[in-house]
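= Protein in question =
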Amino acid sequence: MVYIIIISTVLLFILVYVFYTGIKTAIYVRRIVNEKDKPPAFAPPSPKNVIRERFKSSLFETAITCLENEVEKDCALESIIEKLPLFLKADSWSFLLTPNNDEWRFLFWSKDLDFLPLEEVASEIQISGEHIKKVIDTKKVLFIKDTKKNSLWYQKHSLSKSWLGIPIMVKNEIIGVLNVDWFKQAKVSKFERELINYFLEDIDRVLKTVFSVSEQFLSSELDILTQVYNRKALEKYISQYKSDTSKKAVIFLDFDNFKKINDNFGHTVGDQALKILTKRIQNSIKSDDLIFRYGGDEFIIIIDEITENISIDIIIQRIKSTVKTPITFNDMLIISSISTGYCLVPEEAPDIEKAIEIADKRMYLEKEIH
């Protein structure tokens, strides 16, 4: 009789465990919903593997849909990355670009953060955001259960009670940090943390595999927003062509009062306007001329084989003309202008680095006149 009771108890425990595992798995699986179907509620033998495969499938479906519909690369990246905070049932989220040698900035975020001065927040975090810096230094996920009691946390505008920082990496290089926020204290279980690490591996694999058809997206020398060369690429160019004596022109340009566009229309519209204007500038120069995003709304253009001031004046006027053409975006009319300065190499400067310095000063002289 005692043996029967023991065996019955063991069997009951096994049944309860299997049933609990199945329900728990079904709850997690149902958070990863595809467009056309809903996952069945069943009890698989390996919950983590099933959930991971489901998530991986969802990532690839999203990426392929973006490619088929020719969605812009930053929008595709957003569609992929937002899967994590949705899965974790976060109250808000944001993705912060964290380049080594440039200003940090938020690339995209959930709608409930639209009211925040995100440029100011990004600047604050770059200076004093020890929680973000720890994620970058360790390349590991960091969870802060109570932001008010954590010494790493310092954000004036934050509503977060609990926060999760997730490093987003491509080719083992961090491109930014995904901020996952809860407005009340939350708990991230050990099971969820393990799944997050699996998801990060899959996100990295998806970005490398699917977007390999567009290597520009993965290039650490391209600005993700505008898809022109970034400051890192400019520094590499300067070092490679330090002793180059060929004739070149360096144009330094800065958008006038671009902050007003962000303030009046919002950062999302500002980003779209900057992408459109950058594309117009690209179309105003030859394909073999180089354009670099120097930082914020500042750009540098390097033009080869130019010898006369009159030629560079023509190019600058063409760029200014195309930038002045109003942009219509969601029934909003956006008008912009630029200030420029230029310098000829080697006539006015011995190298590109010195030419940038001279062109920058001349640009500010023109800006003061406006």
